[in-house]
Structure formats: structure tokens, C-alpha cells
């Protein structure tokens, strides 16, 4: 175990990854300003769907979220150039986590991955070469790192891709119906739009996705298959970037290849002036037991989280209980309609409301199809009317269709959702059965 984790290896891969990671953090943060994402997601909404339990995390008032993201972008640049690295990566991790938890209308798995990686990077000696920290303090310079710095990435990726592959093994993915729905809106794309509507392409994407996710990490680990796997990764991730526009995730995923190729190859390609470390040294730190224990707990949690939906009643595609934090990426297409009935608890008279007065177009999609967001909006209505001196009951009629199938009623219309409690580890009986 000591040899596997604490043998020192050349750190070229980690150094180059820090530079790429910092650049992607900058682009993700700065891009949110110029694409209008911040205004649409954090400024315009009257009400923000935070992660349940983190309602105290709310966007800054006015236009201050622009400043918030610009500061994050600056920290991204500091990470890239290795300036006050520990402080910069910790601040980025905390700020990114706050924005991740304060809204989920624009939920994306790469937001979650970026949060995890940011905190992992806090622990890594990624500023020991080609950094301003080393320029200002040459005693920090190192050309090696313990092997565990590589294996934390490999194991994190193995968990991610394995669960992503397993999640695709269900009928609507295997018969490509969900792929057809996801690609239907891409028909207008120049050059490839018509091709994306072909059934043969749907089968290629469906089964290629299962095989890629399930095999990519083992194939990258073995020298004989590494180049093939790398070129497959380039095709796979660029295809996803062009077709699905999923931000920095494809490029971040390609950057992980730095930890699979030989360090000498990385050094020769990107850090030609760097001395190559090839000594055989195992340096076991005094805190090795604590380090191994902490990472063991961390990875056990991340192995367990994607399994939790098996302990809830019904299908996770329907209830979404256990859906988040589980690497269930682009698995289904949901559509629905909803009606919120607000009833004055004292007079029993209905109080008309308009969803447009409360929610943006994107928020309405979540508040129509996702039980947790339906529950949150019912609580918001209850609080909103309480501030006006009224006690209300909220009943919901929601009809949801998954993967083009006929719509079915999602929420028990006879239950006052505003009076229900949320349980993170227990099924909610007001979610009607899928069958």
C-alpha cells in the first residue's frame, strides 16, 4: 500500500493539469457573465430553487452576482498561474460550492464534478513547479509528487464513468427512444442535423456511450490500449461539446488524460525545460494513516451516493429521489404540465395565482416535473402568503411524461403539499406510483 500511494513519481501531469484546470475555472466563471447565464439564473428569478437544506444560501442582491463570478474568474487565473495557490483554490472551491447549492434550475453534473475537484485540488501540491509561488519562493519547487496524487483522480473518474455506464442500462436507452428525443431538437444543426436523426446514429450513440463510459478508464490505464482510448475520448467529448453544449465538461474530461500517460511523455510535450524525476523513493509521511482514512471515507461516500435510489420506492426516473449526485447524466427527457391550487385555509376559497409572476420559463419546467422542486415551490407559496397575513393550503395537479410516453399524474392532488415535510432518505407517499 505504501508503494502504491507514497512512491514518488514525476509531477508533470499534475502541474499541467493545474494550468488547464485554472483556465477552465476562469472560462466557466467568466463565460457565465457574458452568456447571460447569471442574469437568467441568479438575478431575474424572484425565487431561487436551492438545494433543500441550503435555503440560507441565496444570490447576492442586485447585480452583485456579476462581481461574485468575476472574483471567481480571477481566482481561476490565480490557480492557472499558481499564485497563492492554496488560498486561491480554496476560495474558488468555497465560492463555486455556494453557487452550486444556491440553485438547481440549471443543474448539470459537471457543476458537481467541478465542486469535488476543487476541494481535491486544495490537498494537492499542484503549485510546486511552473508557478508564481515558486518564482517568489524557490524553496517550494519540487519535481515529484506522491503517487496518491494521481490515484485520487483515477478512482474519482472510475466511479463517475462506471455509474454513468450502469445508469444507461434501462429499456428506453437500450431501444434508443431517449436518444431520439434528445437529438430531435438538433435537427436544424448545419451539416450534422439530419444525420443526428438517423436510427443507426442513435444506436451508435446509445451503445457507444455505454461502452465508452464502462471501459474508458481501464483502457487508459493499460499502455497497449491507451492511445486508442485517448483518440476515442477526443471524438466522444468533442461530439458532446458540439451537439449538447455542456460547457467545460468535455475539455475537463480530456485534461484527465494527463494522469494516464507516462509522466515523461507529458514532460516532453509541455514542460521541456523541467528536470524529469525518475528516482525510486517511497516517502511515507507521518500523517499517512489520517490521509488514507480520510480518502477511504471520501470514496466510500461517493461509491454509496449513486446507490441510494435503490432504497427508495418506485423508479428514480419518475420520483427523482436519489437522482442528483449520482452521475445519472442525460438519461431521460421529461415533459409535463402543472396546476397549483392555492386555498385560503380560513375561508376555503381558492386564491388565483400565475406561475409567470413567480417563476422563469426554465424554473417552470422544474416546478412541473420534479417532485423536490414542486415541494419547494409549494413551501414558497405558503411563506409568500404568510407574509401577506394569509394561511394557505397548496394542492398540485401535475402530469408528467417520460421519454415520450403518455403523461401520468405525478402528485397526489388530495395532499396539501405545503404542509408536508421533506425527507432526504425516505420516500414521499404524495408522489404517485409510476405504474
Task: Please characterize this protein's 3D structure.
It is a single chain. The protein has 435 residues and is α+β, with helices and mostly antiparallel strands. Among the domains are: 11-144, no CATH class; 334-419, no CATH class. Helices cover 53% and strands 7% of the residues. The strands form two sheets. A four-stranded antiparallel β-sheet has the order 4-3-5-6. Strand 3 and strand 4 form a beta hairpin. Helix 4 (64-81) packs antiparallel against helix 5 (85-102) and helix 5 runs antiparallel to helix 6 (109-122). The longest helix is centred in the first third of the chain and has 23 residues, at 12-34. The mean pLDDT is 95.
Largest pleated sheet: 4 strands, antiparallel
Report the helical percentage.
Answer: 40-55%
The percent range for strand residues is 5-15%
Spans where pLDDT lies below 50 across 5 or more residues: none
Question: What distinguishing features does this structure have?
Answer:
435 residues; 18 helices
Amino acid at each position: 500500500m505504501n508503494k502504491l500511494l507514497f512512491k514518488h513519481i514525476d509531477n508533470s501531469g499534475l502541474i499541467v493539469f493545474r494550468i488547464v484546470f485554472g483556465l477552465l475555472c476562469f472560462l466557466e466563471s467568466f463565460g457565465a457573465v457574458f452568456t447571460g447565464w447569471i442574469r437568467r439564473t441568479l438575478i431575474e428569478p424572484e425565487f431561487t430553487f436551492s438545494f433543500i437544506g441550503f435555503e440560507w444560501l441565496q444570490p447576492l442582491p442586485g447585480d452583485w452576482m456579476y462581481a461574485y463570478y468575476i472574483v471567481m474568474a480571477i481566482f481561476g487565473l490565480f490557480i492557472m498561474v499558481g499564485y497563492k495557490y492554496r488560498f486561491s483554490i480554496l476560495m474558488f472551491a468555497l465560492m463555486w460550492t455556494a453557487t452550486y447549492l444556491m440553485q438547481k434550475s440549471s443543474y448539470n453534473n459537471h457543476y458537481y464534478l467541478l465542486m469535488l475537484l476543487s476541494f481535491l485540488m486544495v490537498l494537492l501540491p499542484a503549485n510546486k513547479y511552473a508557478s508564481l509561488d515558486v518564482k517568489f519562493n524557490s524553496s517550494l519547487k519540487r519535481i515529484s509528487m506522491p503517487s496518491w496524487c494521481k490515484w485520487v483522480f483515477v478512482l474519482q473518474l472510475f466511479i463517475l464513468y462506471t455509474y454513468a455506464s450502469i445508469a444507461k442500462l434501462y429499456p428506453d436507452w437500450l431501444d434508443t427512444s431517449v436518444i431520439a428525443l434528445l437529438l430531435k431538437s438538433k435537427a436544424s444543426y448545419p451539416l450534422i442535423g439530419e444525420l443526428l436523426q438517423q436510427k443507426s446514429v442513435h444506436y451508435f450513440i446509445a451503445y457507444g456511450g455505454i461502452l465508452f463510459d464502462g471501459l474508458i478508464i481501464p483502457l487508459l490505464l493499460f499502455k497497449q490500449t491507451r492511445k486508442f482510448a485517448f483518440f476515442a475520448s477526443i471524438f466522444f467529448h468533442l461530439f458532446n461539446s458540439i451537439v449538447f453544449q455542456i460547457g467545460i465538461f468535455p475539455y475537463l474530461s480530456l485534461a484527465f488524460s494527463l494522469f494516464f500517460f507516462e509522466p515523461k511523455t507529458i514532460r516532453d510535450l509541455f514542460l521541456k525545460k523541467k528536470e524529469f524525476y525518475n528516482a525510486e523513493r517511497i516517502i511515507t509521511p507521518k500523517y499517512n494513516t489520517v490521509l488514507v482514512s480520510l480518502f477511504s471515507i471520501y470514496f466510500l461516500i461517493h461509491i454509496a451516493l449513486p446507490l441510494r435510489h435503490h432504497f427508495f420506492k418506485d423508479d428514480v426516473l419518475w420520483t427523482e429521489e436519489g437522482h442528483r449526485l449520482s452521475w445519472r447524466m442525460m438519461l431521460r427527457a421529461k415533459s409535463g404540465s402543472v396546476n397549483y391550487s392555492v386555498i385560503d385555509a380560513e375561508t376555503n376559497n381558492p386564491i388565483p395565482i400565475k406561475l409567470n409572476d413567480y417563476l422563469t420559463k426554465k424554473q417552470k419546467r422544474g416546478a412541473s416535473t420534479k417532485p423536490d422542486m414542486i415541494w419547494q415551490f409549494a413551501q414558497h407559496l405558503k411563506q409568500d402568503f404568510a407574509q401577506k397575513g394569509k394561511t394557505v393550503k397548496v394542492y398540485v395537479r401535475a402530469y408528467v411524461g417520460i421519454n415520450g410516453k403518455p403523461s401520468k399524474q405525478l402528485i397526489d392532488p388530495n395532499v396539501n403539499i405545503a404542509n408536508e415535510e421533506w425527507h432526504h432518505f425516505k420516500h414521499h407517499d404524495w408522489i404517485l406510483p409510476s405504474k
